UniProtKB/TrEMBL annotation:
<dbReference type="InterPro" id="IPR050839">
    <property type="entry name" value="Rho-assoc_Ser/Thr_Kinase"/>
</dbReference>
<dbReference type="GO" id="GO:0005856">
    <property type="term" value="C:cytoskeleton"/>
</dbReference>
<keyword id="KW-0808">Transferase</keyword>
<keyword id="KW-0418">Kinase</keyword>
<dbReference type="GO" id="GO:0005737">
    <property type="term" value="C:cytoplasm"/>
</dbReference>
<dbReference type="GO" id="GO:0031032">
    <property type="term" value="P:actomyosin structure organization"/>
</dbReference>
<dbReference type="GO" id="GO:0004674">
    <property type="term" value="F:protein serine/threonine kinase activity"/>
</dbReference>
<protein>
    <submittedName>
        <fullName>Serine/threonine-protein kinase MRCK alpha</fullName>
    </submittedName>
</protein>
Amino acid sequence: MAGVPRDVDDRICLMESQFHSRSSADNTNSFSVEALQDALIVLYEECRTSSYKKESTVEEFVKTAKPVVDHITSLRLSAEDFDTLEVIGRGAFGEVKVLIL
C-alpha cells in the first residue's frame, strides 16, 4: 500500500497519531479518544440489546466489553458533577438548566 511505512514501530506511531491528532486541518483523518469511547459504548449497547445477543460471538463481546464500558461510563461527566444555578425551562422530555462545574 502506497504511503504506509514498512517499519512496525513507524506504523504503530502513525496509528497512535490518528487518535491524538487535534489538528483542525487534518480533522477528517483523525478520531478523538472521546469519539472512540462513544463508538465502543454504542456498539456495546446495540449488541447487548439486539436480537443477536444470544449468538456466541456477540455474547462474548458483551461479556468482554462490559467492565471497560462500565469504567468509561463511570469516568464521564454527568449531571451530578455540576451545581444547578437555575432551571430555565421545563417540558415533556425534561428540564433545561444553567449549570456550573
